[in-house]
Amino acid sequence: RPKNFPPGPTPLPIFGTIFSLSLQNPLKDFERLRKHYGDVYSLFIGPTPVVVINGLQAMKEALVTKGADFAGRPQDRMVNDVTERKGVILADYGPAWREHRRFALMTLKNFGLGKQTMEERILGEIQHIMEPLEKSVGKTLSPRIMFHNAASNIICQVLFGTRYKYDDEFIKLIVRFFTENAKIINGPWATLYDSLPMIRHLPLPFKKVFENYESCQKLASPLLTEHKKTRVPGKPRDLLDCYLDELDKVGDEGSSFSESQLISYALDIYFAGTDTTSNTLLTGFLYLMTHPHIQERCQQEIDCVLDGKDQASFEDRHKMPYIQAVIHEMQRIANTVPLSVPHCTTNDTELMGYSIPKGTLIIPNLTSVLSEEGQWKFPHEFNPENFLNDQGEFVKPEAFLPFSAGPRMCLGEGLARMELFLILVTLLRKFKFIWPEDAGEPDYTPVFGVTLTPKPYCMKVQLRAEGELCVN
Ligand code: HEM
Fold first, then answer.
1. Which residues share a beta bridge with 354?
2. Which cofactor is recorded for it (predicted)?
3. Percent with pLDDT over 70 in the chain
4. Residue 293, Cβ neighbours under 10 Å: how many?
5. What CATH number should be reported for the domain holding residue 324?
6. Closest residue by Cα to residue 182 from 212, 204, 154, 155
7. Structural domains in the chain (count)
8. What distance in angstroms lies between residue 411's CA and the mean position of ligand 1's atoms?
9. Per-residue pLDDT tens for 421-451?
10. Residue range of the domain that includes 42
């Protein structure tokens, strides 16, 4: 360890400290190491030092106060080789990342893209979720594919101006490739790839990740060809058109925008916007079914606020403090991106008195903040009171960081919050969701990955009478 570097377990030659962590799910080990070494400690992936940041105080100092120092992304890991260092999520801190991030934020904010607003698109997609639910009244259904496809279609409309049927081959393949890759990227083969550069060219199971990513690019590239044929310059229908307009403006030279970037960039936003939102919904509905009194209180608030209205609007959230608290609590407990996305220091810097050299890999352990004792009234249970004050008003504690913080913070937060609100309110208004009698005890332990996923479960669906819980 360099001088004054954060402490941690003693590394072994070649393997570093990988034996200190369970490769299946290291979250408990991270917690154990925090108790032993403090909020900032270090590990070694092979010979590479890694600093793990825990707790609100250290997280704020790194990601916000010293945001620029901690806003890099490592460039020498398997995922970088797979994506050929294109796209936005894994781009290093610098002009190309900044321009692509700004462009995505601007395009997402420009809700008026085409004719529909973002809210209309989401409400339109919700109608497609209603169908399988209505067919399942009185029966049980597994909600995984339904939520995944809904989130996927919302982002596909923004990116490509199109939605896909829930059994469309294109989406099924993309989802399969991404799911397989997410598993391998988090598994032991990726750790070996990162630790031992000499094995990178061998025909080992990690080759599959490269093949899958290439297949995704091949699947998405006809969309670009079709857009180039049918677009009207200056009248963008979606993000692809906006990007092509931008290319017309800036040209290829001296700009970070290029056609070869575009597919990877779109796939990045697709991936970031699908798995996250759908897993949050899956976790949320699991807890709402097993906490029926919380579900009922949500329905009471919805019935009263939407009394006589056709459908919910995002503005209604201001009149629904309890729903707001429940959605935030769903996100806190879902802990959807438990270790954020790895960062990297861009300068020699300091954190909580330790020295951290430029180029050090950083893991922001968001899990440690979302359940940190002292920050929450009920850190270890599902309880919307975590977000309500004594007057029943919605309040958001500083430790609510599921989207991370600072310059690299999630750029889809606005879209994700709109989706979560409109989907939850619309479904709870019409249906009651029940944990099936024959399903046994619910298992809340998630499956570890880049995103945490609840174990597969089924829900029983009942129709509700309109406004049945409104006492006014
Ligand atoms: C509940 C839903 C979501 C959660 C919990 C979530 C969480 C996160 C987290 C923790 C990061 C890493 C931030 C960091 O490195 O410090 C991130 C990055 C990112 N998210 Fe999300 N996200 C969600 C939804 C979305 C959606 C809907 C989109 C797309 C519109 C999106 C696009 C991105 C992108 C592009 C990045 C990379 C930003 C950068 O590197 O500058 N996310 N998200």
1. 351
2. heme
3. 99
4. 6
5. 1.10.630.10
6. 212
7. 1
8. 6
9. 999 999 999 999 999 999 999 999 999 888 9
10. 18-463
Reported as a pLDDT band with limits 50, 70 and 90, residue 166 is confident
Quick check: is 13 in a domain? Answer: no
Reduced to 3 states (helix: H, G, I; strand: E, B; else coil), residue 12 is strand
For 62-91, what is the mean pLDDT?
A: 95
Rg (CA), the chain: 23
Instruction: Give the position, in ligand 1's atom list, of the atom nearest the Cα of 366.
Output: 10
Question: What mean pLDDT do residues 342-350 have?
Answer: 98
Residues 29-57 pLDDT 10s: 999 999 999 999 999 988 889 999 999 99
Tokens of 409: 């913070």
String of DSSP letters for 214-254: HHHHHHHHHHHHHHHHH--TT--SSHHHHHHHHHHHH-STT
Given phi > 0 = left and psi -120 to 50 = alpha, else beta, which region is 87?
A: left
Question: What is the Cα–Cα distance from 388 to 324, expressed in whole angstroms?
Answer: 9
Task: Tell me if residue 20 falls in helix, strand or coil.
Answer: helix
Q: What angle do CA 429, 430, 434 make, to 5 degrees?
A: 95
Sorting pLDDT into bands at 50, 70 and 90, what band is 472?
Answer: low
Ligand 1 pocket residue status of 337, Cβ below 6 Å: yes
* Contact between residue 231 and residue 237 where contact means Cβ atoms under 8 Å apart: yes
Residue 341 forms part of a structural domain: yes
Residue 11 within any structural domain of the chain: no
Ligand 1 pocket check: which of 403, 408, 421, 424 to mutate, most ligand atoms within 8 Å of Cβ? 403
In a domain, 9, yes or no: no
Does an H or E element contain 133, and which?
Answer: helix 118-135
Dihedral sign (CA 222, 225, 231, 236)? positive
Tell which phi-psi region holds residue 94, choosing left (phi > 0), alpha (psi between -120 and 50) or beta: left
CA dist 377 and 397 (Å) reads: 10
Q: Tokens at residue 400, please?
A: 């609510």
Which amino acid is it at 147?
F
Report the amino acid identity of residue 156. Answer: C
Task: Consult the annotation and say whether 410 binds a ligand.
Answer: yes
Q: List C-alpha distances in Å: 85 to 88, 265, 268.
A: 9, 10, 12
